[in-house]
Design brief:
The protein is an alpha+beta fold. Helix content is 38%, strand content 22%. Helix 5 runs antiparallel to helix 6, helix 6 packs antiparallel against helix 8 and helix 8 runs antiparallel to helix 9.
């Protein structure tokens, strides 16, 4: 390994300092402390100390000795007998000047004339001072007018220090290189473990926290995570335990982030100003993390100069973005299923069932309160208003397709029947909602809308228990809810209940309607589909929840002494099937046996 050594100006030379003054000597310490860099193999230097005619010592950034004490048989003066670092005032002043300027300095102590040289390391430009080299000799005696004896001693020490600092810095760089290679190998091994751990995550915040901790461990970096809220700003949400949050940048404007879809740096003072980023963290890399092509998290990684980090961050960005997108879809689907399950399987009164669904949503997105309002076409006041938790304002009627969100409130609407709109509202007065929270709220609003479809609503008084509907109601509901291609426009399940015995059909159908009514929701549409079959339309119900409802119908039938039933069920999705295809498939499932009592 070759090291280029440039001649350093001494403290008597003219010209400006090597770099600007700093208030603290710690400001130019690289991310890896000098103590780690100076823990190199110094056998050659220990041998040199036995034969050299000048005392040699190495100090770290905290002015602690790095080398072991020299043997007593060494013929040169003992520097340690002359000074006691790190508290020696003369050494402290000389070291501060060296750290500040990058130039050698001299001072006298204990009858010795000592020269302090900076030791440079690292790949950054300018290179950072990581330690000090001390050379000394006996203090010169003042003589008659002529050349300054101290200056002559300094020139002698500079001649020796010039080649000695080059050799010491070469050892430091070699040690750093080996450390980097070892660290890179360890990092590669832990990446595999990290990706495996990612696969067990079920929460996006856990995923980001683990990523922040891994990057900080790999690169000894200051890593932070900013999450986008519904206002478009990116708010600080993940950081290392030692970060002084009161002094950190708390938010980043979205318009300065959205233009980037890859790892990027700030290139100009205007970039720092637009992003509101601290110029002292100028070596920061920004890692945008996208969810479905929209940046929703930004990681900041500061204090790293290793060339490999950008490649690592690019790879990690792609992996984490894919996982965030999957977690987002899973979260929306999970909350919607939980809400649908509460609405479908609870036997409580109508208002209580709705409140349980609202509580499920609020708990999932951290809302302090939630409400659902149902509006009839042409009416400004809601026909039904049900709340859970604390609600401080009402968004009013929100047209379907015009959902709105602010940092502290989300309004989402859905069709709840012909000419009926359900408006879901959630509040969070202190913290801000994220864009992921808004997507979950929209998904749950659709679930509520599907559940409300088919429910008879009086102004401000929903009818919880309805009489069985004639068969025309079920078929009318299905046939009026199709698109131009004749495919049904909502998601749900259709179940057909038929007897297996030869009892009179009229008696069986009357009994079946009562049994089915006791086993389903008040909003579900029930009708006679043939002289020996009763159907029930379960809007917004997926296959797992539909099977639970079928099991409940069978249990109700058994409690009433009917043990010879078969139930066929078909789950359909919006725009996937025609009404006739759904009916035919469901009858076929029932004929094949379906679920039996």
């Amino acid at each position: 390994m070759m090291t280029t050594c440039m001649k350093r100006e001494d403290n008597y030379a003219s010209g400006g300092d090597w770099r600007l003054s700093y208030d603290s000597t710690e400001t130019i310490v690289p991310r890896r402390e000098g103590r780690a860099l100076l823990a190199g193999p110094w056998d050659w230097l220990e041998q040199l100390r036995l034969r050299f005619d000048l005392p040699i010592e190495i100090l770290d950034k905290r002015r602690h000795y790095v080398l072991a004490p020299a043997p007593t048989r060494v013929r040169v003066p003992d520097i340690r007998a002359a000074i006691t670092p790190p508290d020696d005032e003369r050494l402290r002043e000389a070291a501060a000047a060296v750290f500040r300027t990058g130039k050698a300095r001299s001072f006298a102590a204990g009858g010795l004339h000592l020269r302090v040289f900076p030791l440079f390391a690292g790949q950054q430009v300018p290179r950072g001072v990581v330690g000090l080299l001390l050379l000394g000799t006996e203090a010169p005696v003042a003589s008659a007018p002529g050349p300054d004896p101290a200056e002559e001693v300094d020139h002698r020490l500079d001649a020796a220090g010039q080649w000695l600092t080059a050799a010491v810095e070469a050892t430091i760089d070699a040690t750093a290189l080996r450390s980097d290679e070892t660290h890179a190998a360890e990092r590669f091994g832990t990446i595999i473990d990290l990706v495996e751990a990612f696969g067990r995550m079920d929460d996006d915040r856990q995923l980001i926290d683990l990523t922040v901790e891994a990057l900080a461990m790999w690169y000894d970096a200051d890593v932070r995570g900013y999450r986008q809220d519904v206002s478009g700003q990116f708010v600080l949400e993940a950081w290392l335990p030692g970060l002084d949050v009161s002094q950190a940048v708390r938010s980043l404007p979205g318009n300065a982030v959205w233009d980037h879809d890859e790892v990027f740096r700030l290139e100009s003072p205007r970039d720092f100003e637009d992003l509101g980023w601290d110029p002292e963290l100028g070596d920061t890399l920004f890692v945008p993390l996208a969810v479905e092509d929209s940046t929703e998290w930004v990681l900041t990684v500061s204090g790293v100069t290793e060339p490999s980090i950008e490649a690592t961050l690019t790879l990690l960005r792609r992996v984490v973005s894919l996982l965030l997108a999957q977690l987002d879809r899973d979260a929306s689907s999970r909350v919607a299923r939980m809400t649908a399950g509460r609405l479908a399987l609870c036997d409580a009164p109508f208002d209580e069932v709705v409140r349980m669904g609202l509580e499920t949503l609020a708990g999932s997105i951290g809302a302090s309160g939630s409400q659902v309002a149902i509006y009839r076409q042409g009416q400004d006041a809601p026909a039904t208003l049900i709340r859970w938790g604390t609600i401080q304002r009402d968004p009013g009627l929100v047209e379907v397709g015009q959902d709105s969100a602010t940092p502290h409130g989300i309004a989402s609407s859905a069709v709840a029947g012909p000419g009926v709109t359900a408006v879901l509202w959630c509040e969070k007065p202190i913290e801000a909602f994220s864009t992921a929270d808004a997507r979950i709220a929209h998904s749950v609003a659709t679930t509520f809308g599907n559940w409300f479809c088919g429910t008879i609503i009086k102004r401000g008084d929903p009818v919880g228990e309805q009489a069985p509907k004639p068969s025309s109601d079920l078929m009318e509901r299905m046939r009026e809810s199709v698109d131009r291609r004749g495919r049904i426009v909502f998601m749900g399940s259709l179940a057909i209940v038929a007897p297996e015995s030869d009892l009179p059909a009229a008696v069986e159908l009357d009994e079946l309607e009562k049994i089915v009514r006791r086993g389903v929701r008040s909003s579900d549409t029930i009708g006679v589909l043939s002289d020996r079959a009763v159907g029930v339309l379960l809007e917004g119900i997926d296959d797992p929840t539909g099977r639970l409802i079928v099991d409940r119908i069978l249990r109700v039938a058994q409690r009433h002494g009917l043990y010879s039933l078969r139930i066929g069920m078909t789950t359909f999705h919006a725009s996937s099937d025609t009404v006739d295809a759904i009916l035919e498939q469901t009858f076929s499932n029932a004929r094949r046996g379906g679920a039996k009592a």
